[in-house]
Amino acid sequence: MRAGLPTLLLLSLLAGCGKGESVPPPSLGAASALRPHIVLKSGIEYDPGTAYVARTAPGGTPYVITALHLFCVDGHVESQIPGGQLEMRVSFINLSPFGGREIVATGRGSKVSSGYVRSNNKDLAGDVAAFEVDPATLKADVLILAAEDARVGETVWLLGDQENAKPQSQKLWTARVTEVSAQRTMVQTEATLSFDAFSGAPVVNGKGEVVGHLIAASASGLVAMTGVSGIRQRLSEAGIK
């Protein structure tokens, strides 16, 4: 996730989020947004971004989902992931709650194994990685993907915590949707946050359903994310219904 991009700063001046009536946040489990620990087959280990476990529908198979660019060679948003490369690179992903060490889900066997993610934040539909969950490890709160993208003006919530917050705990930050397209969704947060390690963090609607996950943000709190239509498209291409 890279902050302070000129496109986002310009949009922050144009998007203006009006303050409407206060909307109560959804009721979510404390292990809905999670910290990933990635172990590569090369033996390299690192702790990037944020992840979550979700189903495409109630009763469906759960998958670990996060941003694809967390697996790019240089760690930046713009990279090409050739077919099969993600599968060859990743051994497993362990997920833990914010502020805790317990492993509440392990992801193996990448399902979304190729894609192109772009740093201009105009086309983010492909910035999705998904992994099969080891059922024996699953203690996380499993989210449901929304059936469709959020609407402009809708109140949504960003899940996670700032990297420098102590102690760490899952929090919800209120935001307002300012733009929706097949390529991306833009939201404006009410609070000013440090967005380090927020890549892949889920954004949910009033029902607690995932409407997208964060890719990049500006210092003003304007967030660019992969909308749920993009997430569903990538999962469908991988055979996940």
Task: Give a verbal description of the structure.
There is one protein chain. The chain is mostly beta strands. It folds into two domains: 6-28 and 144-228, Trypsin-like serine proteases (Thrombin, subunit H, Beta Barrel), CATH 2.40.10.10; 34-143 and 233-237, Thrombin, subunit H. 10% of the residues lie in helices and 34% in strands. It has helices spanning 6-15, 85-89, 228-237, and strands at 34-40, 45-46, 52-55, 63-66, 79-81, 90-97, 105-110, 115-117, 129-133, 143-144, 155-160, 171-180, 185-189, 202-204, 210-217, 222-227. The strands form three sheets. Strands 2-1-6-7-9-4-3-10 form an eight-stranded mixed beta sheet. A hairpin with a 4-residue loop joins strand 15 and strand 16 (222-227). The protein is globular. It starts with 5 loop residues before the first helix and ends with a helix.
